Amino acid sequence: MKAKLSDRPVIRPLPVMDRARQVTDALADYVEDARLQAGDRLPAERELMAALAVGRSTIREAIRHFQALGVIETRKGSGTYLLKPVSRATIHMPLSFDAVHLRDALLQTLEVRRGIECEAGMVAARRRTAKDLVVIEEKLNEMERVHLEKGTSGPEDLAFHLAVYDATHNPLFRQLLEQMRETFERFWEHPFDRQDFARRSFPFHRTLFNAIAAGDAEAARMETLKILDIVEEDIKEMSK
């Protein structure tokens, strides 16, 4: 018996590949093909723009990705240098899920987020500098502005959390997030097509900042838990 047309699986259109991801892959291939070693200089920004036919912002986003992974450094007035050899296989380490449903994938990822972000908040509270606080508050203010204007603020929310990670002065926090970014970003892309996903956590970002500014590690942990507990509640409620 032939399957009904409605029973057949849907072939979905291919997503548009992220340009910064393409540039990142191209740079990794170049480093590998050219057999560059630690201390070697990478092509200049303008040269990369011309060779890859992309804009400056895309090049800089890819460079920031490499910097976050600790594999390159930019020296003012000199250029960008390789700190350790990389390949496409080493710059992208996507996590794999056995979970078929978005609900299960989000809950599994949340368990990892809870451990990393609680620790990051505590470490940031102990190590943040005055400059870190300025950056975190700038990201928070922008998040609040966009949230009040649009009712949602996914990218700005992520930028706030990245600023907290940077305030730990432990590059592994940022590197871990970069390696897991594709998985973590599910939380900032309106899961279940709900613009109000985790909206109730909005006020606790300000109290998390206050805890970090006060140098109160335990309060930072508690405020982070409040945010993630709301996320978990919304996952379970909105996936019914």
TrEMBL record:
An annotated Gene Ontology molecular function: DNA binding
Domain of life: Bacteria
Pfam families per UniProt: FCD (PF07729), GntR (PF00392)
Sequence ranges assigned to domain HTH gntR-type in this UniProt record: 17-85
Keywords recorded for this protein, A-Z: DNA-binding, Plasmid, Transcription, Transcription regulation
PANTHER family in UniProt: TRANSCRIPTIONAL REGULATOR, GNTR FAMILY (PTHR43537), UXU OPERON TRANSCRIPTIONAL REGULATOR (PTHR43537:SF5)
Name of the protein described by the UniProt record: GntR domain protein
Organism from which the protein derives: Rhizobium leguminosarum bv. trifolii (strain WSM2304)
